Amino acid sequence: MTTIDDIFDSFEFLDGWEERYGFIIDLGRKLPEMDPALKNEGSKVVGCMSQVWLVGQRSDDTPARLSFLADSDSTIVKGLIAVLKAIFDHKTAAEVLATDVEELFGRLGLAQHISVNRRNGFFAMVERIRQTARNQSA
Fold first, then answer.
1. What pLDDT digit, counting tens, does each position of 64-112 carry?
2. So what's the pLDDT on residue 22?
3. Helix ranges restricted to H, the chain
4. Which of 48, 55, 77, 114 is labelled catalytic?
5. Are 83 and 24 in contact (CB under 8 A)?
6. Cα–Cα distance measured from residue 4 to residue 7, given in angstroms and rounded to the nearest whole number
7. Contact, 67 vs 59, CB < 8 A?
């Protein structure tokens, strides 16, 4: 499983944004396949220009940990999904809600290197993840 620290480490060795985009796209290609039955209106993320489906799952651990299945029809968005999974998978609801995604987004340099529409879609996915965590906390 790729962690956000793994992504930061890899970014240090990549020469520029073209290589970093390629790395992000490669991460997206490695995502597990999402069951087509899960790709429905209930799992569709509103606010993304591309088609994006995202489903949260809760473990039986104590405390419960969350993981996320997601897919998109866009290769770069699939890469951004992989980044989000690196940040949020296998975290408790409290850890998900306490994560400063804006700070991580800035540290990766994504704020300056993806379009406004992709940024909006990224944060629409973050909001869906946070909503899943809030629902688990309730």
1. 999 999 999 999 999 999 999 999 999 999 999 999 999 999 999 988 8
2. 95
3. 4-13, 17-29, 75-88, 93-98, 101-108, 110-113, 116-137
4. 48
5. yes
6. 5
7. yes
**Rounded Cα distance, 56 and 73, in Å:** 19
67 catalytic per annotation: no
Q: How many CB atoms lie under 10 A from the CB of residue 7?
A: 20
- Is residue 48 pLDDT above 90, yes or no? no
Are 121 and 49 spatial neighbours (Cβ–Cβ below 8 Å)?
A: yes
How much is the pTM? 0.94
Q: Which domains does the chain have, with CATH numbers?
A: 4-137 (3.90.1010.10)
Residue 90 CA to residue 103 CA, distance in Å, equals 20
Single-letter amino acid, residue 71: D
How far apart CA 68 and CA 125 sit, in angstroms, is 11
Query: CB of 89 within 8 A of CB of 1?
Result: yes
The CA distance from 88 to 66, in Å, is: 8
